[in-house]
């Protein structure tokens, strides 16, 4: 895949030996010019040091560099963790000759271990020296933990003969839940847009993508999606009332959804991507709560892994989601085949045998109570998930 | 184990071939005299037909017989499911020459399949004829589904030279969540006590036992615990203000907790029983919510399966439970070893290596915010859980 880079961004990635030898684990994204910045963060009350720093720094509306590491989350590391992250960004800022407040740190990996500063600090010179020698794909590789493939994509908008590029990279495979998880995401664009609009657009895009996926229902301490817009495209400034704004919004939403689905597809041990589509709810909140209950049910997930059209486990999860329902109103379809309606099984399971072998499964639940809906993307649950997570130290 | 039976109760169990041949799957518990009755039921909004019938009938305060089957839950079976369950209890009542309202049906097994009436109805004569020829252990065996062992226990109270016996049987191994699950429980006693007190005692006992266990967080459509007190003991009537009441309450709580722990120990694929003990919460609800979040976390469960003292996953679950906390106040101990306090890791993981190989693990979480607490019993999560549930049709 030939991935176009938004203008004015440089990349670097090196092997710092943070947790393992011989793998890229420290990366730098640098904009030649100061960029407008936006961010969406974990709602977990236990927040890693880099998350706290990013949350504070993006309030200024400007950023220029993002330093990313895998192998260590710098979470639950107390005062020292905070000091370490601050020191890294400060030293890096000096080398890049930019303000330290414009450097944003992102970490992913083991919780509760101090960062190996003796490895990271001496590596900063090389990291800066290599700027421009790596591409975004290498950055995507450097932030992988249990991911089995790097996650990167882009969108381009042609507007009056000029091009705007959006580039997205992310990581995540386990600890994935609605409201994000052990996921990091960075969206870079050369669009001209103010940080206020950017924040609004990013929050909206994340809500329907990274916040609508779940692998295991666990939510991490480090989830962050950052977006930088450096205005280096020759296209016009994106005004909220313009058609270009709509175009840009659609491209961003689309890009985030594509990246989010990559995370689901790479869900630890996943053999299938399952879309839980709830309609006919009284409120969007009700719909999302039911979709989450179904998506989180280990019994539903193991049934799909076993290619068993077990709508009984689905309706049981609908029933315990904590949302008022009427059994006799509920319709449940799997891959377009209706299995339960008007309070009764349709006994059509046999028609599903072939389609359950597919890698993509759609569960459609109509509550027939209202007009609201929600969609959640999740995975099945396999022995491989257990193997990965009983051995991996987060 | 020699299990004493409360006076005046008879048992019967037969092979009716409901789902499989050559296994006991239909059972009857009968009290010679009308008994005071109490019941606690699933809070799932999707309730199986037998649950709805029991909920209605126990309001009368009296019952005499319980008919139990495995292999079919008679859930999501609409009007026909209700008619089937009513017909069974009616025919059985006629044969037993008691009121149909005094017969309570309990079903467990596959959801969404009609009961095989052509097998059950002809079997009723034999079921009644065999009354007194089976013991309670055979009834416990007849209600097993994915259980690997029958679950039965008892308590006896000696009071002024008279004996009161409490006998409990239950089933359940998966779909186990706080607020009960695919579990059925029956407590029989020969105590003299009114149904109002019985209901209060049972609700309290269930809250700290069957409602404090979780295997997979799934809650079923059929969960029921029934209690019958037929007054056939020669001991005095149990008055709410008496010492005997306290004694009886303690015995009942203890019996329910023992049975509940059997369910956890038999949790599908479980290799360990994990107690999540949350203290120092502002409210009991807060404590329970945090205990549940930790107990349900697939990452915590797989870590214990891997014998990894991964407190990072525990604190992440504490952080997303939706309860206000202070990171710097939290203490986390596993098997008595403190791993996190004052916002910092203690780095004492090595001391845990041996004790994590034990079958019983205790996680102790002190929020240091208040005086409330909660305890949840759960299991680890192994490949075997996946194997069982991707093959078994509930």
Our count of helices of chain A gives 10
- The end-to-end span of chain A amounts to 31 Å
The name of the CATH superfamily of the largest domain in chain A reads L-amino peptidase D-ALA esterase/amidase
| Low-confidence spans of chain A | none
Q: Which chains share the greatest interface?
A: A-B, 65 and 65 residues
Please report the first level of CATH classification, the CATH class of the largest domain in chain A: Alpha Beta
H-E order of chain A: EEHEHEHHEEEHEEHEHHHEEEEEH
As for the number of domains of chain A, it is 2
SS strand fraction of chain A: 25-35%
Biggest β-sheet description of chain A:
8 strands, mixed
Q: Indicate the radius of gyration of chain A in whole angstroms.
A: 22 Å
Oligomer: homodimer
